[in-house]
Write a structure and sequence with these properties.
The chain is an alpha+beta fold. It has one domain. It is built from two helices and two strands; from the N terminus they run H-E-H-E. It has helices at about 1-15, 35-45, and strands spanning about 30-35, 55-60. Strand 1 (about 30-35), helix 2 and strand 2 form a beta-alpha-beta unit. The relative contact order is 0.22.
Length: about 70
């Protein structure tokens, strides 16, 4: 989750370097399949990305009972 959070911050910072402020997004939409869906769900509540992510689209993600829990809760 920390790596994905850093990636989101970096992607949005690259958009800020564009000279046209009308094209700079303030958030991202996350799409994740399987374990990627779990990461997307966690990023919706992750402190450093809570304001940078609004929507998570998951496909075949074990959201109710993950096989392995990588993040400490």
């Amino acid at each position: 989750t920390e790596f994905a959070s850093a990636c989101i911050s970096k992607i949005l910072s690259l958009y800020r370097k564009i000279n046209n402020p009308k094209t700079v997004p303030s958030s991202v939409i996350l799409i994740g399949h399987s374990m990627g869906g779990l990461i997307a769900k966690r990023l919706l509540a992750y402190p450093s990305t809570i304001n940078l992510t609004n929507i998570a689209i998951t496909l075949a993600a074990p959201l109710e009972a993950p096989v392995v829990n990588f993040d400490k809760i």
